[in-house]
Amino acid sequence: MACQSKDCLDNKKMGYDYAPMPTPWRCYKPQTKCTKGKLDSSSFKTVVDVFPLSKLDIIVSFSIKRPATSRSQQEKDKQEEFLIFKGVKFDDREYIRFGVFLNADKTVNANELDKTEYAGSYSSLPHVHAHNASHEYVPREFKLAITELLEDNGLEYDDTIVVTVVPKEGSEVISIAVFLVINHE
């Protein structure tokens, strides 16, 4: 009897098929915050006043102008809107992590990541062993797609948005040079 590799790749040919199971996380939409309404972006420092950050050791909130507002669905499908952190530097011997929220007010708990305000997080595991003294502070770039997040939070027509960066771990060794919002294909 001849058996080929391709026969092993099809589960049905092998006589096994997975039982259909619901996957609720595929279509899951996070909860909206308790307090309705948008934050007053004029009460926050602008991105120019905050960046560059030499040390991310406290929660930082700032407002930033968006490149385009009230885009059509066709434009949104063609170009995704991104939050971009450029020049993220840290000690690669340390575990680091920070979270990013949009339009988060005081009622949003930074540890609850199932809210619509949560945009994402950046984390990096140590890459150099502790006994090795040489390490690098290589600048990295971190992008978050926010088009759908802006729609979910009702911010798609706002000229400015409020971004909150929450340090979680290793915050004393993180620095961020530039922060941008751009449209990208």
Automatic annotation (TrEMBL):
InterPro entries documented for this protein: Polyphenol_oxidase_C, Polyphenol_oxidase_cen
Entry superkingdom: Eukaryota
Domain Polyphenol oxidase C-terminal: 51-177
Domain Polyphenol oxidase central: 6-31
GO molecular function, one term: catechol oxidase activity
Pfam family, one: PPO1_DWL
Family: Belongs to the tyrosinase family.
Protein name: Polyphenol oxidase C-terminal domain-containing protein
